[in-house]
Design brief:
With 285 residues, the chain is of the alpha+beta class. The protein has helices at 10-26, 37-43, 45-59, 62-77, 143-161, 231-239, and strands at residues 83-86, 95-98, 104-110, 129-134, 168-171, 194-196, 199-201, 205-208, 248-257, 260-269, 272-276, 280-281. The two termini are 34 Å apart.
């Protein structure tokens, strides 16, 4: 059982580790820095270059935004949404989507869900629906670790502690279905591949969360919403060929343990629990 269909490509991960080791030992032979081996590694040049490249990969959003733009345009062209717009840098969210019902759905774009950036979001007052969309471009990342880290460790704590309701999570990006992250949904079903601009994508992974904020006294165990209750996720489901048995439901159960609030996270699929946490305290600075 798993909380996401795909898994880390162990062969690719092994090659990444091997190449990283080779890079560490042979880096002094690259470029025209004019330093001998000892000078090179003592100078900080190698570490500085690695940090610069790492920062460039982390900071760039252009490729991710291009993906989202093509997907939302595709949905609009086919009548699954009315319109959409980028929210701009002044807002604490990324996209505003006008739905056929008149609702406004807000999309918060995140990376692999395993970092502190996942905790930074704000549901705007006008949002009728609010979802987090994970676009993880690191083919070497572990999707199962990241999905659990994002939903249980990070999002559940923010939902409960800051009372920030999140209606659902979408995990879907341009690495899905590639050699870096093979998708089981496409096994012997290549016709399920979606052609969206320059991208070829399997159906997305959809997670439905509760419609209310968990509270130990008044609302200790809210259950996940139904797909029809979250119009933006239903639009993704309809547009990109999802199947009902592939949808994940997330529920949180909260209680007091002494002075701590503890929560238990369950992720289910097709009526079966795929993973359940222990009662975990919410630790905040």
């Amino acid at each position: 059982m798993s909380i996401i269909p795909c898994s880390q490509n162990k062969e690719l991960r092994k090659k990444i580790q091997e190449f990283a080791e080779a890079l560490k030992t042979e880096a002094h032979n690259l470029g025209s820095h004019g330093l001998d081996e000892a000078e090179f590694y003592n100078s900080g040049l190698f570490r500085g270059a690695i940090e610069r490249v790492r920062g460039q990969f982390s900071a760039t959003m252009r490729e991710k935004r291009e993906l989202v733009q093509h997907i939302l345009n595709h949905m609009q062209d086919r009548g699954h949404i009315l319109d959409w717009e980028s929210a701009g840098e002044a807002n604490r969210h990324d996209y505003s989507v006008s739905m056929s019902s008149g609702k406004t759905a807000i999309i918060e774009l995140k990376g692999c869900l395993d970092g502190n950036n996942t905790n930074i979001f704000e549901r705007p007052p006008h949002a009728k629906e609010f979802i987090v969309w994970s676009v993880c471009t690191n083919a070497g990342a572990d999707p199962r670790h990241n999905a659990w880290s994002g939903i249980h460790t990070r999002l559940s704590a923010e939902i409960i502690f800051r009372e920030q309701r999140v209606d659902g999570v979408l995990i879907w990006d341009m690495v899905c279905g590639t050699i870096g992250r093979p998708c089981p949904k496409l096994e012997e079903q290549e016709e399920r591949l979606n052609h969206v601009g320059p991208f070829q994508l399997p159906p997305p992974c959809i997670y439905l969360l509760p419609a209310t904020i968990p509270s130990p006294r008044n609302n200790s165990h809210p259950f996940a919403q139904n797909l029809d209750d979250v119009e933006i996720l239903k639009a993704f489901y309809d547009c990109f060929g999802c199947q009902e048995e592939e949808i994940f439901s997330v529920d949180f159960q909260v209680n007091y343990s002494g002075t701590d609030i503890v929560r238990t996270t369950r992720i289910s699929q097709n009526g079966e629990v795929q993973r359940e946490s222990e009662a975990t305290a919410i630790r905040r600075a």
